[in-house]
User: Fold these one by one.
Assistant:
Number 1:
Amino acid sequence: MRYMLLIYGDESGWGNLSEADQQAEMAKWFAYTEEMQKAGVSTQGEALQPTATATTVRDNGGEPLVTDGPFAETKEQLGGYYLLDVADLDEAIKWAHKCPGAKYGKIELRPIQEFPDPS
Amino acid sequence: MGGDVDRAEEAVQDAYAVALDRWPRDGVPSTPAAWILTTAKRRAIDRLRREAALRERQALLARELEEAVRDLPGEDDEMIPDERLGLVFACCHPALALEAQVPLTLRLVGGLTVPEIARALLLPEPTVAQRLVRAKKKVRLSGIPLAEPEPDALPGRLGAVLAVLYLVFNEGYAATAGDALVRDDLAAEAIRLARIVHELLPAEPEPAGLLALMLLHQARRPARVSDAGELVLLSEQDRGRWDRAAIASALPLVDAALTLRHPPGPYALQAAIAAVHARAPRPQDTDWHEIALLYRELVRVLPSPVVALNRAVAVSMAAGPTAGPTAGLALIDQLVARGELDDYHLLHAARADLLRRTGRDADAAAAYERALALATNEPERRFLAARLEECRG
């Protein structure tokens, strides 16, 4: 079963860390990613730039309506994601719990909607 | 299958559980009934083989060696011996909201119908139906496995499991509709499962408390319904009919539940209350003061209107300046004023009883009428109707 593993946290926390702490934190993320790849459970994952760099787009009568910032201001923001392929929710929960982001934020697990192959 | 009806039923139950797991993923087979029967037969044969193998192993090993082997993890060793109990733990998965776990377990494991579940949870039927639909959808779409949890996750799942087992027991103990006041099969099943949980987690107080509570209720069952099928009140029961062996087995569990953790939990307290009744040789020997005190503790850890109602009844039975029927009535009227339990027949029945005891027959009659309009269990209805007649006559 495939899940999106969505990492939410207060992104302002990063700026408060010393450079040494930031490096230590990054090491944890790299180790986590590597562990998932070795286990064959994650085929893709990325960190996102902070929400200050976001751009929101919607359609306004045929014209694009473009605004600066994320779609909504939230206390915790989406910071990154992984695409998981595991047996069931319990396995997904195990990996979500191991995620460094689970310590100071929340991990949302959302099953992927599988559509039948059109071919 | 050798005419062993129990085994056959279990096997079919197993088959349904497997179906619930597989069909959402793999699709419904073209002949579902045949699939169920084939699967049931296969699982019955597997189960017989496993049981035969287990008996052989136990016979060969020395007792000490047996225990050593049981403590080691092994590929074939199942942590939970009963597969239905595994299903209970799975239905109580934390990814399901608690309000979904309880009806789902009652449905899949207890086999209760939607009306029975609605009655037990004091909820409207459409609400129950909706929660079941949502829960099954969540299980299916989010990939919740219908399997036993890892051993380290067991204690966490406990609260929901115990709540569900108690509901199943209560449904069996006092059936919501129909002529039988008690349904042995459900109550016995709940006790069996509660005992397994207690043996799996002996350091946990609440499984012991729940098991004791169920045993004590069950011990009174032989005296609860008269030969004519009428409800017999606790105060009028022939205590010679109580199952003394069941009571004796429950009392040490009560002590354990009360002392394993402080403050005592709700099942421990409820079991302690039942134990006070069980220890009284005659109704007039009942220590109602002790019961009222225990209920006061219980209201703190389990602040539900039903508990408050039971406390009011206990207070009404105790003696003293702040006890007795008038004091009990005042507590019940507090509930009524808050609009609590207006649809609960036992509230009106209790109120009617206290009104009767304080000489307010006309008010008592009105309350008995309300209770009768809400009660669905035949022996209870006959009892209420008889009391109503007394008040009118």
Number 2:
Amino acid sequence: MHGQAVVVGVGESTYYKHGGSPDTEFQLACTAVQNAAKDAGLEMNQLDGLISYMDTRNSPLRMADALGFGEIKWSATPWAGGGNNSSATMHLADAAVSGGHADYVVAFRALAQGQFQRLGSGAGLMSGMAPEGLSWGLPYGLMTPAQECALQTNRWMHDHGVGQEALASISLACYANAQLNPRAVRHGRPLTREDYHESRWIVEPFHLFDCCMENDGAAAVIVTTPERAKDLPGKAVPIIATAQGKGPDIGINAFQERWFPNMYYGNVGKMIWERAGVKPADVDVLQLYENFTGPVLMALCEMGYCEPEEVEAFVADGALEGPDARLPFNTSGGNIAEAYIHGLEMVVEAVRQVRGESTCQTKDVELSLAVGGPGYAPGSAVLFGPAL
Amino acid sequence: MSRYLGDNFILPNLTPNNTPFFTEGTVQIQFCKDCNHAQHPPDDICYGCQGWNLEFRACEGTGTVESCALVHHPIHPALKDKIPYVIAIISVDGAPGCNVQGNVVHCEATSVKIGQKVKAVFEEAVDPATEQKLLIPQWEPIASE
């Protein structure tokens, strides 16, 4: 086990329905970072490192100047994709502080989809001509992550005899857990199995409730060394292991035969279990990024939780619902029912579980895992250990 | 033939790497002249032997539906009267490992199945900027009776 870096602060803005934020995206980002610093007991001028992902709008240098950071010693972003890198933020933060490159590194992600466009709207794809990288799909109306993931999921369900109820179980667990969480955008909006099946199709096999929400909000996580954490008032949550990447025989061009269907979590699972010296059954609580329910099931199997042929039973009968579930899962409601802050809110929830502060608190949590978005390379995961 | 999703729907912006696929009227896949590796999408280097000696070859124009999905939510305004439509991943005969994206046309969208054999047909379009003629590969079922 590693444990040379610890989370000392988490912060969030209020989470809103998309387009519902009265604040700009940059204001939301600043709020989350300020809240994380307050939570840690740090002054702004102690922060000296910044990490985000798929963010071209909230520059780290603008953030550092605006909030009064000290000298900046680390700025980094993982390559490629989007929510697949939510846990890679912890990989980079761990590298920064355990390598001695920076003292207090903050990872953040902010989205204001009223101010800017929704990711799933296909916005930017509406012009008459598709650039080369998108030209293979757009002229055929293959335009969104939901459609790409549906093609992956359909083939996987076909090959392994997985039924629609398995997908439903993921969505129902997120909604059930969100009912315990007043921060959740879908708090007070319970979902029944009938509601799920009656909801409109987006792209088969995904109903509306198989898809994550899109939201306005921001989240932030501050990482430092265990030695520095001793001088801070709160509980420090050790990073036991991190992983990001893809296998050598797993390509970035989706749909090609040797890696289709695939969610990029086989090698991430192997790395995280080897580095931590534990196995899936040792993990007390799991946050697994839902872009869509099908990829969640596929990633669960690729990470070694069960075989695809067993997955329907593995997630059935409320196996994922509530603090005392067979596998406590997406305990804040996740991207489907808490808020879609591109998965960083799920890293925050994984930390909260170790601190004992979740609204759906699992008992005696020692190992808490947050897994990034499936279906796009590189995959990422972070395992947190017992609080110091 | 006219286009599955409407004659005014999004066209590929032609580049050296995608022009053969979208203009030749055959299913053009990139092969390495040195090691015979087939790859899609095309790129500037062979992923098999790292050589630069690449060429496009016409495949026989048949394939298999590796996956398909019925789209109900129209992301683009032009798709509102096209739903539900079917998107598919097709493995190309003669190009080992290469899967292309497309639609399965000339049949009910709901009838398309994984494992189904298909053959290429081509949609005609004109690039509005260059007036170059495009022939966009699509796929139709091969009658199995």
